[in-house]
Amino acid sequence: MSPKNNLLLEEALDENTPTERLREIVRKGNKTIRNAVARNPNTPPDILIECFYEFPNHVLNNPALELILLENPHFLNELVSNNPFVFNDELPLFFVEWASRHPKESIRESVATSIQTPCHVLADLAADVDEDVRYKVAENHKTPSYSLAQLAVDNNYKIRIAVAENITTTSETLEKLAQDEDENVRSKVAANERTPLETLEMLARDKCGMVRIAAVENPCLSSETLETIFNSLIALDMNIIQQIKLPLAFVDLAVNHPDANIRLAVATNHYTPQNFLAKLVSDEVTEIRLIVAKNPNTSKSTLKILINDTNDAIAFIAALQLRQKLEDYYFDDDEENPF
Length: 339
Prior knowledge:
By secondary structure, the chain is mainly alpha-helical. The chain has 25 helices and no strands. It has helices spanning about 5-15, 20-30, 30-40, 45-50, 55-60, 65-70, 75-80, 95-100, 105-115, 120-125, 130-140, 145-150, 155-165, 170-175, 185-190, 195-205, 210-215, 225-235, 240-245, 250-255, 260-270, 275-280, 285-295, 300-305, 310-330.
C-alpha cells in the first residue's frame, strides 16, 4: 500500500476522524480503506448505507448501529434497500431474525432462500402465512428435516413438489409423498435419488405414466424392475422400441438385449443416442450394423468405423452417409454432430 493510502487507512480507522473527513476518505480510498470506514463508529448513516453493499457484516457490527437505530428505527430497511441480495452472506443473527419477521414478503422470501439462514429461522418460516415464503423454505437444502416433513402436507401442491425435489428430504418423508394425490408430486418423488428402492418400485407401477417414467429414469431403480417393465413394453408392441424416444435405461437394455430383433428395433429408432448406436457397430448380425449405418443419428466417428466393415454393402452405405454429413455440417473431422 502506498504511503498516501497508509495515511488514509489510519484516518479511516481512527474513531476521532471527523464525519466529513470520513466522507472524503470513502470516496478516495481503496477496498481496505472503505472497509475501515464501514467499521468506524463515527461514519455517518448515509455512508454506512453505501458501504452496506460491499461490507454488510462490518456495517451491521458497527458500534454506532444501536444508537443509529434509536434515532432512525427504519435504518435497517434502508440498508436492505441498498443491498437486497445481502441474505446470501453470513450475517449477524439479530439481523436475520429481524428480516424473517419483516412485513414485506419479499424480504422474508430472501431469508428463506439463503443457505446461510440458520435452521431455527427456516423452521419458523416454514409456518409463514405466505405461500411463496414457504415454497422457498421447501426448496432450501438447509431446511431441517422436521420442517420439510411439515411442508410435505402443505395445502399448496407446489410446496409439496419442492419438498419432493429437495435432495435433503428424508426417505420417510419421501415415502409419505409417494402416496400424494397429485401426480406431479409423485413424479418428483420418483425422480429423487433418496427415494427408497421399495418406493421407487411401487412408483414404477403408478397409475400415471409420467410418474412411471420418472421412476424408470431414476438410477436407483432395480435392474429387475426395469427389465420387467421393458419386457412388458415389448410384449405390448415392438414398435415402441423402434419409434418412441425411450428412457436411457430402456435404450441400454435394448442395445444389450440377447434378442437380435430388439437390437434391430433400437438401431432403427432415430431417437437412439449416438453413444448407444456406437455400441452396435460390432454386432454379429449384419442387418443390425446396416441399420446403424442408415440411421441419420449415427455419428461421424461411428460411420468412420463402419466404412471399414467386412460387409461391402455396409461399408458403402456408411461412406455415403459420412459424405452427406460432411456436406451438411461444417464441423471438423473430430467433432460430432450433436443432434
